Amino acid sequence: MSRIHMIRHGRPASTWGDADQDPGLDPVGAEQARAVARTLMALPEAERPSRVVSSPLRRCRETAQPLADALGVAIEIDPRVGEIPTPAALDAEARPGWLRRAFEGKWSDIQGDLDYVAWTRTVADAVAAYPGAAVFSHFVALNAAVSAATGGEIVAAFRPDHVSVTTFDRVDGALILVDKGQEASTQVL
Fold it and tell me: Cα 115 to chain center, whole Å?
């Protein structure tokens, strides 16, 4: 099957700039993780994921776990679907401001240590490598995959809500956007 579901993690226990750099889910996020697992398990068999892939970060792994348990599979960890790489010169306190500036512009405008347009292709290639999977990731990585699939240039053109499910098909090795998931009604934090 070529269908791929990319899911934003559930609501974390802390947000940008808090002391915990790798928070897990809060109680609402834990329930969101169980709910998205039920939603994905209820899909017709031809569309239901058979593999579970996650960013290495705890909030994604915890969101992925109920689906992995329901499918009886291990979570495959892939750092390529992790958070956007922060410039090495920035400390944890400076990261929120850097992200806010990044969200206001285009991929090519992001200041940092790497080519962020190329990073969007890396994320999309990683997602495309998992046909038949549910890939648990982050706000910016979801935007990267959508941008690469559609040729978009805006970093935050899509505001996926927690446990929003974005659907792609893989055609000739490339991602084709089928459906953007539910968008958040507020700014991301």
Answer: 19
Q: Rounded to whole angstroms, what are the CA distances from 96 to 16, 99, 119?
A: 6, 5, 19
Task: State the Cα–Cα distance between residues 171 and 18, nearest whole angstrom.
Answer: 40
* Strands of the 133-137 sheet, one edge to the other: 75-77, 51-54, 133-137, 3-8, 165-171, 174-179
Distance CA 47, CA 137 (A): 19
pTM, to two decimals:
0.93
Q: Which residue in the block uniquely carries the two structure tokens 């970093």?
A: 155
Kindly report, residue by residue over 23-78, the tens digit of the pLDDT.
899 999 999 999 999 999 999 999 999 999 999 999 999 999 999 999 999 999 99
Cβ(70)–Cβ(153) below 8 Å: no
